[in-house]
Design goal:
- It is a single chain.
- This protein has helices at about 5-15, 15-20, 20-30, 45-50, 65-75, 110-120, 135-150, 160-170, 195-200, 205, 210-230; strands spanning about 35-40, 55-60, 80, 95-100, 120-130, 175-185, 185, 230, 235-240, 240-250.
- The mean pLDDT is about 95.
- It has a domain at about 5-135 and about 155-190 and about 240-250: Rossmann fold.
- The protein has a seven-stranded mixed β-sheet. A three-stranded antiparallel β-sheet has the order 7-9-8.
- The chain is built from eleven helices and ten strands.
- The protein binds benzoic acid (BEZ).
Length: about 250
């Protein structure tokens, strides 16, 4: 299952993805002159915030349309297309930063291995992504709805616990110095169409082999199943749970 990205829809209706990450940048505390990799840069907003601190930033993303939009938004910054499971840096960096990306990487060990190779000894990894229990109500409704159509649900996402991800990082020499897993209910834009927009943006791979009519029915069914939990005063509130980690590459 391959997620296809619509960079326009992403920028116009899902700005919360980067707006929530301001304090993740504070956790990283980038210093002027540091070399930083923004892993999964999307349309570049956080790459730009990082660059504004005086660091030298390189944004990479697996999706060509996202990279093109990032480059158009910030022509003075450096972006490239690369997969989190298979990337290299020209020279080891002081920090790897990544927001709302690693839950898309279903081969997490490959990503952690690349990250560990990219970091200098003492370099920092600062990441936030969906952790265990993320979007539980939405995923349950997706499962129920697909099963009612005689199809099985294969999650396109990876939502680990803090313990599981810590073990993985340690295997590659990264020591966790800060880690939390917490609920972060996330209001979606555009009132009553918020959840439908979210599903079309982020769950399109799950719908891929359904007709447009079936997709529409499925979305309505998911809304019906989650409304009592996730719809409040005219706004859909996605049941996000965020894993936030800072880890340091051991000196070998
Ligand atoms: C998240 O940011 O938690 C997320 C985004 C899209 C799909 C699943 C999870």
């Amino acid at each position: 299952m391959q997620t296809t990205w619509n960079s326009q829809l992403y920028e116009n209706q899902h700005a919360f993805v980067w707006q929530y990450a301001e304090d993740l940048i504070e956790l990283l505390s980038p210093q002027p002159g540091e070399r930083i990799l923004d892993l999964g840069c999307g349309t570049g907003q956080l790459t730009d915030r990082l660059a504004n601190t005086g660091s030298t930033v390189w944004g990479i993303d697996a999706d060509a349309t996202m990279v093109a939009k990032a480059q158009q938004n910030y022509p003075h910054l450096k972006f490239g297309q690369a997969d989190a499971r298979n990337f290299q840096v020209e020279e080891p960096v002081d920090a790897v930063f990544s927001n709302a990306v690693l839950h898309w990487v279903k081969e997490p060990e490959r990503a952690v291995e690349c990250i560990s190779r990219a970091l200098k000894p003492g370099g920092r990894l600062v990441v936030e992504f969906g952790g265990r229990g993320n979007i539980q109500a939405i995923a349950q409704a997706l499962t129920n709805t697909l099963e009612s159509l005689g199809k099985s649900y294969v999650s396109p996402w990876y939502f680990p616990s803090l313990g599981d991800y810590t073990i993985l990082l340690e295997k590659y020499g990264l020591e966790v110095v800060y880690g939390t897993l917490r609920d972060r209910p996330t209001p979606l834009q555009d009132g009553k169409t918020g959840l439908a927009n979210w599903l079309r943006m982020f769950a399109n791979s799950v719908f891929a082999d359904l007709t447009l009519e079936m997709q529409q029915q499925m979305i309505q069914e998911i809304e019906a199943q989650t409304r009592s939990k996730l719809y409040q005063n005219g706004t859909w509130i996605a049941d996000y749970r965020r894993l936030r980690i800072m880890a340091v590459m051991k000196n070998v």
